[in-house]
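Input structure tokens:
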């Protein structure tokens, strides 16, 4: 019996191109991080903005850089 190997790039191809349509995780994580960053800038009453503002503070309507050191 001969074993043939399939490359990860072939698996991640779209189904219309013969792959399984599995997402490339690096690109997916980058896109998701970009979405979260955009939401932090736009949605000021969202949960994560409020959490980060409570943790680091706000300066002129934006999240403060740095803030307290360490965790409790």
């Amino acid at each position: 019996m001969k074993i043939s190997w399939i490359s990860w790039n072939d698996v991640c191809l779209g189904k219309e191109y013969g792959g399984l349509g599995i997402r490339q995780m690096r690109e997916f994580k980058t896109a998701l991080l970009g979405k979260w960053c955009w939401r932090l800038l736009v949605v000021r009453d969202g949960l994560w903005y409020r959490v980060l503002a409570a943790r680091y503070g706000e300066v002129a309507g934006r999240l403060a850089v740095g803030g307290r050191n360490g965790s409790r």
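The chain is about 45% helix and 5% strand. Residues 8-63 form one domain.
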